[in-house]
What does this fold into?
Amino acid sequence: MKMSRSIVNSRREKVLELVRENGDITVNHLAEQFQVSPLTIRRDLQYLEDHKLLERFYGGARNSAEAGADLSENKKQLRRERIARYAASLVEDGDSIFINTSSTALAMLKYITSRNVTVITNNGNIINEKNPSHATIILLGGELRYVKGAMVGDFAMNNLTQVTARKSFMGCGGICPDTGMTTELLNEVNLNQTMFERVSKGSYILADCTKFGKRSSFVSCPPELIENIITDADAPAELVREFREKGTWVHQVD
It folds into this structure.
């Protein structure tokens, strides 16, 4: 019987962890650790090397600076995808939602399965995203900042003040219990604030663990107005506790 893809992927993730912890590790050691044949381990190592996650040598594999950086980036991306998937599960049939210029919030689009959803956004990059649920997309327009794909300015704000959504899903530059949600870009602050205000059923901040404790230049939402945060299991426990003590519901995605 063919081994399921999830079992194979899980083993390969654990192989990576062992390589990262040990630096150098042998095929025989890994085969004994996972109770599989050396041939199976060699295939795993070949796959991981092909994806530039480690370096093979005769009889084993090692971590490298480049591989370590790639692994760190892959883990960060995996966290954000899981946060986006969870956020998408909160979208219900008939919902209208705000999404800001966050790449994590934008990733929600490909995971939405509910019907008759309307997405209202100033994120110009949404044009290139997969839209399997065929959600209706409304772009706010305005001045396009090409580097980030953000639509900002008075035109975008005027259009935003004409609509109300059921929910908003917002990424951030940083989030702290004492300062709230912050961003590096001044011209996005008013748009973010308005997306928080013009909702009828709730607002959600999407922030992976690297955003906790980080203070960007401008406050988009003070801590006392933060209703929900969606983050990952690696978010600092002390900061999560402080947010919960303030009345914020913190959803942690495993």
